[in-house]
Amino acid sequence: MAAPAAAGRQCDRAVDQPGAGVIAGASGDVLFLAHRVPFPPDRGDKIRGYHILRHLAARARVHLVAFADDPRDRSPAAAFTDMLASHTIVPRTKKQWRAGLEALASGRPLSLTAFDDDAVRRAVTDVMARQRVTCAYAFSGQMAPYLPARVRRVMDFVDADSAKFAAYAADARGPMRWMLAREARLLAAFERSVAAAVDASLFVSAEEAALVPGGQPLENGIDAGFFDPAASFAPVAAPGVPLIVFTGQMDYRPNVEAVTAFVRDTMPQLPPAQFAIVGRAPTPSVRALVGERVTVTGEVADVRGWLAAADVVVAPLMLARGIQNKVLEAMAMARPVVASAAAAEGIDHGGALRVAGDAAAMAREIAALLADRDAAAALGRAARARVIARYDWAARLAPLDAIVGLAA
């Protein structure tokens, strides 16, 4: 393979040039390893990764080594790269079939073989040889194998992926059930071994952290200044009937299953309303849901217009791990939210959203909010107040300085 500068896009600042906003006294540089370029912050993992990286870059020189699975991510905007001391981006091109064969031959999880890349290893070696790195931060379990030795090592698992695959396996049949159960078992062992070897193991919620020995929560936050109903954004025209909105990455299995079940089981129980599925990369099965009462937008430039137009925002996920950004965003936009128990589990909402245990309960909660606009507006105001008080990014990331070992 080519050297890192050729295999990925690499850009370095001079070693003696301070990064933007670096605080005097920081103990050393930070190597940030990401399974996906955390920019633009337009999906759950990218949002968390971006805000953590921005927090660190304001306090130390940060060197990013990341995969890009979208061609648009191979050359991030200067608004992102200018806060980094250096960045190396490696396109992720390994075919799934090849990763599967490697997983079976090596006895490793597919989640790891899919991200096994010599170019990333060389990039990490290069950074460690040329920079004064004192802490390496791996974002998502797939990046754990790239953590270098002899520095402080922080593993941000985000979610316990083993639990997710175990849930998938419980619903699967035949060979797929075996494959998913294998992935869950191998990942669980991997997560435990990594947690035992690093200095800190972080998860998006206390519930997730409890699944791995030594795990500690570092919760997601929200940019309540951006997700603000008073901010400037392009409005979305009301459809003439009540609008129910779901947002998310629409090739992500839990999102696909959620909207499919909602259209099938909940929509028939509701009064006349329009359901908008808002998010990039809708699968063919999602596009097949389009009908008189269902709209599938595909990728939108700014989700805030859709949230602001919503009479109710729903999060009917049957499988959800950690804190759902989509729920925090809707709450910050002062919208009334109806969420499944799984989607609400990691959020300390204080009663500022409605929780529904099944499709019938979700239909009842939505119908009640559509029928009582004053109650819906009050719930939305309470939701925004709760988010501001509980989920501001600065407060959520305050423990990170000590975890990473940055000087006060």
UniProtKB/TrEMBL annotation:
GO terms for molecular function: glycosyltransferase activity. Gene3D superfamilies: Glycogen Phosphorylase B. Keywords: Transferase. Pfam families: Glyco_trans_1_4. The keyword Transferase applies. InterPro entries: Sugar_tfrase_PEP-CTERM_Stp1. The keyword Nuclease does not apply. This is Glycosyl transferase family 1. It comes from Sphingomonas ginsenosidimutans.
